[in-house]
Design a protein that fits this description.
- Keywords: Plant defense, Repeat.
- By secondary structure, this protein is α/β, with parallel strands linked by helices.
- Among the domains are: 166 residues, Rossmann fold, CATH 3.40.50; 72 residues, Orthogonal Bundle (Helicase, Ruva Protein, domain 3); 81 residues, Orthogonal Bundle (Arc Repressor Mutant, subunit A), CATH 1.10.10.
- 27% of the residues lie in helices and 15% in strands.
- It contains 23 helices and 29 strands.
- The strands form 5 sheets. The chain has a 17-stranded parallel β-sheet, with helices on both faces.
- Helix 1 crosses helix 2 and helix 10 packs parallel to helix 13.
- The two termini are 35 Å apart.
């Protein structure tokens, strides 16, 4: 991959006169050659220095132009220093196409940018999108666009010059063997008795990385690695890729990986095709949907979600899905399905009437079945031919419509009375009035209204007695109605939203006005396991917190207070009663009063089983009970102001801490690391610690793997100890914000010492500001500095859909 990356970077860096237009380069090759992997590697390489803004957007077969433009704009806005941008982007679904195009052009004008459009199937898609990129004789930008496609014709039509096409080739025999042996044996060598069969299997794979890795990982799981067993696998592969080295051969190979799954995982894996092509599937949403669908069988002493998590881990371990974001503990947070594997499981789903589809024309079929059990409407598929009739879909138990801009003409919620699962995430057409019929679906167990224009829930939501998950994140819902307290089966009450500063999502931002107030009667919801994010800035919502102590199953809790300290009292009382159940706690005080979080120090029964703790607010020192958090894995601190070295030494001795995030005024000591400190730490974020005089690893954090840095100025004592002698396991350093070149170059030089090729990336924030199109001076929002908290949040919004914070050094945690 290194040589291919160098070749593409070299093409992009060539100086060519392109009057008023961005440079467009195409990467072409059939499925399984690794086009997306190559584009991602180029996208992240520091060799393309000076990139001021960038975006990575999957296009796929069924695309919605508006959704693509929204995705581009949200990612570009990440690097614009304008406090009003988040407020404006929350109204993005109200803008017309001209506004979207105008705003994208403004973000790109005069900047060096990089845009990746992944998996383009038709040149028409490029023609529809390219109008958003600055062009014309007066344009002085230095834009580069990478397009990946299977079609040579599309590649030719899109690229700027005839030789701006990088054609991917199958791996040569030597590289194929090396990849196969590393996949199966974790080594470059193969046992002599398996060498011949390895060559025979590789002959079937025809140099396709996806085929090699898929079969290799399947064989790696086999306990008995014998020549006879491998011959059986080889025979099952057939000679498809020898005679037809394109899609059919790849499908046959990937079908083997599916067939190798145990019976109880096949339905769970088939379910992944309910999500559109290139959709980043979040772990938390997936396992809750599995549970709601009845695909998980409960076991004694384990919840359905816990069993679902075990099933997902097993699927991940088989490497038949593409991992997305990985948490600091190594747990997968999101995943994707390769488009060829998606075709395989869609075909099986349609044949077995497991899931039916609307969207891409090749999936618009029920294969002769007269009843639709699960229906997935993919982007661009809302006004398609009437393959289904209303009679077909009245028996539907599960309906998935993601990121659509037009309401399907066939869908009438009032008729779908058997629905158990309804996922409408990102549906721009959804309005409050649609909830009237949705609240009549009495069998609903899972309801997601995430990232829609919903602003108010009706009291009738309390009629959804079977509801287990209610997701209204990234909406304008700021208060729950009294009816919410009637939902005695509800496990997950989700509100709030995040955006991100870095592509790895190591630094994220929570907006204070995404929290919601709750009514009295919360104690009746005895099944609640997770509440996020509750705003207790009114007396009514604060008093409701006094009932939390009745929720003995509550494990995750996020609370925000923007008013006076007295509003914390009911919450503090409840914390004493939740000491045995809480595993995740976020406490945010947004006032400017002194020591508003001091109540934490006086808890009689502190939550000593915490695995994640995230604090925002003034503290003289950490509560004494923090030293007893033996299971604490993730910690974030922001605006604690007075937290100095003595408190930091307490943190340094925590035995399980793997992620530490220190933000603005989160630490006031001189240096961070001493000998023996943080023995298990794997991830460290240092952001805008103005008073930090030195970042030095003096034998501390020996297991550190990822380091994320933003310095407002060069520390007086410098950055020391980043090298293979002190940090032997370090594999990634990422810079964001305004990157100080001297520190960046120092780390890049140290990276050369690492035998495992230490990855160094940067997220530069441009110094110029572009005002949002169509905005008026009358539009305003009384934002306050609020954080994004946590390391292992499984509900992070996908990077291709969200905007990182517009001001990294001010709003993070």
């Amino acid at each position: 991959m290194g040589n291919m990356t160098d070749a593409v970077v070299s093409l992009l860096n060539e100086q060519r006169q392109v009057v008023g237009s961005p440079r467009v380069l195409s990467i072409v090759g059939f499925g399984g050659l690794g086009k997306t992997t190559l584009a991602t590697t180029v996208y992240n390489t520091p060799e393309l220095g000076g990139i001021q803004c960038r975006a990575f957007v999957p296009v796929s077969q069924t695309y919605d132009v508006r959704s693509l433009l929204e995705s581009v704009l949200k990612q570009l806005t990440a690097l614009v220093d304008n406090d009003r941008n988040d407020y404006l982007l929350r109204k993005i679904k109200e803008w017309d196409m001209n506004q979207l195009v105008t705003m994208i052009k403004q973000r790109l004008e005069g900047k060096r940018y990089l845009i990746v459009l992944d998996d383009v199937w038709r040149a028409a898609a490029w023609d529809q999108i390219k109008v958003a990129f600055p062009h014309g004789n007066n344009n002085n930008n230095e834009g580069s666009i990478i397009i990946t496609t299977r079609s040579k014709e599309v590649a030719k039509n899109c690229c700027t010059f005839s030789d701006d096409i990088y054609e991917m080739k199958p791996l040569p025999e030597e590289d194929s063997q090396q990849l196969f042996f590393k996949t199966v044996f974790m080594s470059e060598e193969c046992p002599p008795d398996l060498l011949n069969m390895s060559k025979a299997i590789l002959a079937r794979c025809k140099g396709l990385p996806l085929a090699i890795v898929s079969i290799g990982r399947m064989l790696a799981r086999r306990q008995n690695k014998t020549s006879a067993e491998w011959k059986t696998v080889c025979d099952r592969l057939g000679s498809e890729l020898e005679t037809n080295p394109t899609l059919e051969g790849m499908r046959r190979i990937l079908a083997l990986s599916y067939n190798d799954l145990p019976y109880h995982l096949k339905a769970c894996f088939l379910y992944l095709c309910a999500f559109p092509e290139d959709f980043e599937i979040r772990r938390g949403s997936l396992i809750r949907r599995w549970a709601a669908e009845g695909l998980i069988i409960g076991m004694y002493d384990r919840s359905l979600e816990e069993i679902a998590q075990i099933c997902l881990d097993e699927i991940v371990s088989r490497n038949i899905i593409i991992p997305g974001q990985i948490g600091c503990s190594g747990k997968i947070k999101s995943c994707k399905v390769h488009d060829i594997m998606l075709e395989v499981i869609i075909a099986k789903s349609v044949k077995e009437n497991f899931i039916s589809f609307l969207g891409s024309s090749q999936y618009n079929t029920t294969a002769g079945h007269d009843k639709v059990r699960r229906l997935s409407i993919h982007p661009g598929g809302t006004q398609e031919k009437r393959t289904f009739s209303s009679k077909n879909i009245v028996h539907t138990r599960s309906l998935t419509i993601l990121n659509s801009t037009e309401k399907p003409v066939l869908i009438k919620f009032s008729r779908l009375i058997l629905l158990r699962v309804l996922d409408l995430e990102g549906c721009g057409w959804l309005r409050n009035k649609d909830l009237k019929d949705i609240c009549k679906l009495s069998l609903l167990r899972y309801l997601s209204l995430r990232n829609t224009a919903i602003s108010q829930l009706p009291n009738a939501v309390g009629k959804l007695k079977e509801l287990v998950t209610l997701d209204v994140r990234e909406t304008s819902v700021v208060e729950f109605p009294k009816g919410i307290t009637w939902l005695q089966n509800l496990n997950h009450l989700l509100v709030g939203g995040y955006s991100y500063y870095t592509r790895t999502r190591s630094v994220k931002h929570f907006w204070w006005n995404d929290g919601a107030k709750v009514p009295r009667g919360l104690g009746n919801m005895c099944a609640l396991q997770r509440i996020s994010h509750v705003d207790i800035s009114t007396e009514k919502s604060s008093n409701a917190m006094g009932e939390l102590g009745k929720l003995r199953q509550l494990t995750r809790l996020c609370v925000v207070n923007r008013k006076e300290a007295k509003l914390w009292k009911p919450f503090a009382k409840s914390l004493d009663e939740l000491s045995n159940s809480l595993r995740y706690l976020m406490v945010v005080d947004a006032s400017e009063k002194v020591e508003e979080l001091k109540f934490l120090a006086y808890l009689k029964n502190p939550p000593l089983s915490l695995q994640s703790l995230h604090l925002v607010g003034r503290l003289t020192r950490l509560p004494g009970w923090v030293s007893s958090l033996s299971n604490l894995a993730s910690l974030s601190l922001r605006q604690t102001y007075q937290l100095a070295k003595d408190s930091f030494e307490v943190l340094a001795k925590l035995p399980s801490l793997v992620s530490l995030k220190l933000y603005d005024k989160g630490y006031t000591g001189r240096a961070l690391f001493e000998e023996g400190w943080f023995p298990q730490l794997k991830q460290l974020v240092v952001d805008n610690l103005v008073q930090l005089e030195e970042l030095s690893f003096r034998g501390g954090a020996p297991n550190l793997e990822r380091l994320t840095l933003y310095f407002p100025c060069v520390p007086r004592g410098g950055v020391n100890g980043i090298g293979k002698e002190k940090l032997r396991k370090l594999r990634e350093v990422e810079f964001f914000g305004v990157v100080i070149e001297s520190i960046f170059e120092q780390v890049c030089e140290a990276a050369k010492e690492y035998p495992n090729h230490l990855k160094v990336t940067r997220e530069d924030r441009p110094t110029t500001t572009t005002e949002a199109a169509g905005s008026s001076e009358q539009e305003s929002t009384d934002q306050v500095d609020m954080p994004a908290l946590g390391c292992e949040d499984d509900e992070a919004t996908p990077a291709w859909r969200v905007q990182p914070s517009t001001c990294p050094h001010t709003y993070t945690l």
